[in-house]
Amino acid sequence: MNMAAANGHLEVVKWLHASTAAGCTEDAMDLAARYGHLHVVSWLHYHRFEGCVLRAMDEAVENGHMETLT
Fold first, then answer.
1. Average per-residue pLDDT in the chain?
2. What would the DSSP string read from start to end of the chain?
3. How far is C-alpha 68 from the chain's CA centre?
4. How far is CA 25 from the centre of its chain?
5. Homologous superfamily of 2-69
6. What is the pLDDT of residues 10-37, one digit of tens each?
7. Predicted pLDDT at 45
8. Which of 5, 36, 48, 65 qualifies as a cystine partner to 28, CB 3.0-4.6 A?
9. Whole-prediction pTM value?
10. CA dihedral in degrees (61, 67, 69, 55; nearest 10)?
11. Inter-residue contact 5 to 13 (CB < 8 Å)
12. Domain spans in the chain, listed from the N-terminal domain onward
């Protein structure tokens, strides 16, 4: 799930969430934020509990993805 989130594949993230016991770590939201996948960040925020770390917000800004912070 982490790699699907990192690559912006929301449908894969949703499928893994619903169909398997596969979980994810905070890396899922961290990487999605880093690469500007706002749709994935938003979905993870509302459907998963792992959250993210402060580093994710810093990397989103460094990579020009301010919209992921709003």
1. 85
2. -HHHHHTT-HHHHHHHHHHSS----THHHHHHHHTT-HHHHHHHHHH-S----HHHHHHHHHTT-GGGG-
3. 10
4. 10
5. Ankyrin repeat-containing domain (1.25.40.20)
6. 999 999 999 877 788 888 988 998 898 9
7. 86
8. 5
9. 0.77
10. -30
11. yes
12. 2-69
pLDDT of residue 6: 95
Of residues 30, 41, 50, the one with CA closest to residue 70: 41
Q: Which two tokens stand for residue 13?
A: 């993230």
> Looking at 21-25, 35-39, 43-47, 52-56, which range is the least confident one?
52-56
Query: Smallest Cα–Cα separation from 51: which of 22, 29, 67?
Result: 29
> How far, rounded to the nearest angstrom, does the alpha carbon of residue 69 sit from its chain's CA centroid?
12
Could you tell me the CA-to-CA distances from 16 to 12, 19, 33, 40, 53 in Å, in that order?
Answer: 6, 5, 19, 13, 22
